[in-house]
Design brief:
The chain has 180 residues and is an alpha+beta fold. The chain has helices spanning 10-25, 39-45, 47-52, 78-82, 117-126, 168-176, and strands spanning 32-38, 64-68, 91-102, 131-140, 145-151, 161-163. The protein is globular, with a radius of gyration of 17 Å.
Length: 180
Amino acid sequence: MSNTPMAANPLTRAVLEIDEYASGLGWDQPARLFALVDTARLRAEQPSLAGRLGQDGEQATTAFTPIEQDKIPTGKPLDEFLGTIAWPDAVAGCALTVERLMLPPSAEAQVPKDLDEAALTRWVAEHPERQEVRMTVAVLRGGARESALRLRAKDSPTEVLTGSDLVPGLAEALTATFAD
């Protein structure tokens, strides 16, 4: 059914499921936002929806069901967009997938001084050591967080790196969507 490796942590399983979904769409995709809902609550409160989402059998044991939200508006910085989100109580967490260019830490010392944002973006895009990466970051209301990183150069489910602190800035921005 799924090629996602089994993870012990329910949030890690949700992140890997979203990563697998995004991987199936291919690269060069826009950012995607997901609500994470408690699967048991979904099955109890919305049995017909749970059935349409395939929430039976093996999936019934997963703790969180990711539900993709409307498209993220283009032309608005991601941090500004995230600042406009408020989630209903039924949403236990949220996740975001986004593609970016990444440089190794050794390139930090090479960054020219006084570049504006557009010039810095061009510089990174032209850097010979750049890597394309898809980041999937998820947070729960209680503060738990998890991330998955997939390099385009190593686009395989067995090459996905997971960890709670891989993309701290994005995790903090997603956590802020649950602030009162």
